[in-house]
Amino acid sequence: MRKGQKGNRPVKIDRKALSNNILEIFSRHPKKLLNYKQVASRLFITKASEKKLVNGLLYELKEKDALEEVSTGRFRLKAKGGHVIGTVRIERGGYGFVTSETIREDIFISQNNLNHALNGDSVKVLVYAHKKSGGLHEGEVLEIIERARDTFVGTVEISGRFAFLEPDSRQMPVDLFIPLDKLNGAVNGHRAIARLTDWPKQAKNPFGEIIEILGYQGDNEAEMHAILSEFGLPYKFDENVEEEAARINDHITEADYKARRDFREVPTFTIDPEDAKDFDDALSLRRLENGNWETSVHIADVTHYVKHGTLIDEEALQRATSVYLVDRVVPMLPERLSNYICSLRPQEEKLAFSAVFEMNDNAEVLNEWFGRSVIRSDRRFSYHEAQQVIDSGRGDMHAEILKLNELAQLMRRRRFQSGSIDFEREEVKIDVDEKGRPVRIYAREHNLSNELIEEFMLLANRRVATRIGAVKDKKEQKTFVYRIHDKPDVEKLQKFSQFVKRFGYKLSLKPGKQTAMSLNRLLTDVKGTREQDIVENLALRAMAKAEYSTGNIGHYGLAFDYYTHFTSPIRRYPDMMVHRLLADYLNAAHSRNRKQYENMCRHSSKMEVLAMEAERASIKYKQAEFMKEKLGQVFEGIVSGVTEWGIYVEIIENKCEGMVPIRELGGDFFEYDEDNYWIRGRRTGKKFRMGDLVKIQVMRVNMLRKQIDFALAEEEK
């Protein structure tokens, strides 16, 4: 018996319920044009009077702006606010989301409605009036306004009369079809770059052509170049840029000496990683007649050599940062500049931009000076060598190093007391042989020599930003480049607080710096525990991302009101911007164009993220290469992540992370609980939670995907 009837007695139809049912029909078929007869049929309505009611409700919904009448009597779901412009983000499942400035929530786009849009593309979207479950709007891509990229890195596969490029990126959901006459010398198994040339409307795969052959699959050079190319990062300089670098005069003139403060006779040294060649910071120390200390942070004067608007400057802006892969550095500046002319090499006179502080024995800054200088580094230390001096109290320049270490530790304690958060995480270090093959993976040491350099760099960065930014009158506020870090997401912190409770830790979420102080206590308490990596990782996820901006909001993580990047101009373009602005303002220049600098800040933030992703990809590749030789071996690990498709486990011994697919977890149906960071078996109730200790066996390694697959060892099942 149909709803709306009871026996033979007619009942009044619920118009509101029927309207909702009609909207549900259109929501299920948002692109379809339907008339009242088609709608009635889908609702199993046959009586003429009720069909007439459906027709009337269609026009009522049109008046309410829920439906639009495309042609006489034919309706479809009306777009919410018409069309919007946004950026596509493709997810693992092949569907996507569009972020737009005109709608607060993301717009869900099913795979069928992407209409050839790819990750990062700028698109025009039709947004449907209803919301998908979870509070998201649903929509359809109508037009691709601009491709985020038209080149893709992958592996060439040739079979008979067909060839494809299988892209490395999981966010590229389809292979590129390569006509045989567009292979341009590529053969099966080549790692290559292809350009998307066409994508016919009805074609499943886009058409492309090979534009660069990187080498054979598994070759170290080919794989590292593939990683860089995947993130749109260069791996070499154009000849004209190298030629311009070769023409730069590195001679220090008499005019340079006269115009600069002379530190050549002041004890000066550098501390850097053992394999570093670009030394862009040095420290010096001397006792003043009044008993105070003159501590100086000397930074390579890159902008003396790289002039605004030159080819090298434009290239440096485009790159925005050096990229640090496992086995190499891809520099922002040509090697002649980064490793020789600008690098503060020992026993060589160098031009610098210095931040000079008069400090007392309590590490309090009494006076400061910023300006250009000339220096001569007496000694180059590695972090290990400097640490040996700190530990033993003996060695080259031990008096200077020991005093600077003492001052650094005073500043460090004061910084944490002010609410700075200690986010010093273990770094993975991978030693490779002469062919680039990984031979050892371990956690890099972080000790007092690292903290010495860190504290003085933080001091220089903070004081430079304060010098320009801390003005009382807003009219005097000049355009400047800040390194900003927003407050953490409260909801993420609450979830994190619930998570750490099961390990016996407490996190205070009181306003102000109390949250930061509580976080510091937590991060101190977890050091040396098996859950350390997990807790530190989740704490970082709860934080906002630091970025560059001309709009200062302070740096939450460091608890600084003003902060910038001044100390690494050889490897970061924002530091070059800061050097130029600081030099201009010290010479009483007017404020520079804010919009221009904000655009450069946004670009630099974007390139920083890409460089970090490339670095992580190179680590993942080398970890996969390392574990390829350990198939079948059993290791102890910690559950480092949980998802609906499985659990991630980090091996304690070597920090390599792999996944145990959900199908390998045993005879049960496991459900994912995002809020509790676990998956749980429906039948057995067995849980796998972040931080759990498990034993795994190495099952498979996919080098192209940089993916390691584990299975639980027999005793875990």
Q: Key terms for this structure?
A:
17 helices; 717 residues; globular; alpha+beta; 7-stranded mixed beta sheet; 35 strands; disordered N terminus; 6 domains; OB fold (Dihydrolipoamide Acetyltransferase, E2P); 5-stranded mixed beta barrel; Arc Repressor Mutant, subunit A
Number of helices: 17
Strand order of the largest sheet: 15-22-21-18-17-16-23
Helical amount: 25-40%
Estimate nothing, just give the exact number of structural domains. 6
What amount of the residues lies in strands? 25-35%
- Would you identify the regions where 5 or more consecutive residues have pLDDT less than 50? 1-11
Extended strand count: 35
Gross morphology: globular
Structural class: alpha+beta
What can be said about this structure in brief?
With 717 residues, this protein is α+β, with helices and mostly antiparallel strands. 30% of the residues lie in helices and 30% in strands.
Q: What can you see in these coordinates?
A:
By secondary structure, this protein is an alpha+beta fold. The protein has 6 domains: 73 residues, Winged helix-like DNA-binding domain superfamily/Winged helix DNA-binding domain (Arc Repressor Mutant, subunit A), CATH 1.10.10.10; 68 residues, Nucleic acid-binding proteins (OB fold (Dihydrolipoamide Acetyltransferase, E2P), Beta Barrel); 67 residues, OB fold (Dihydrolipoamide Acetyltransferase, E2P) (Beta Barrel), CATH 2.40.50.700; 231 residues, no CATH class; 54 residues, no CATH class; 86 residues, OB fold (Dihydrolipoamide Acetyltransferase, E2P) (Beta Barrel). Helices cover 30% and strands 30% of the residues. Strand 3 and strand 4 form a beta hairpin. Helix 13 packs antiparallel against helix 15. The longest helix has 34 residues. It is globular, with a radius of gyration of 31 Å. The two termini are 52 Å apart.
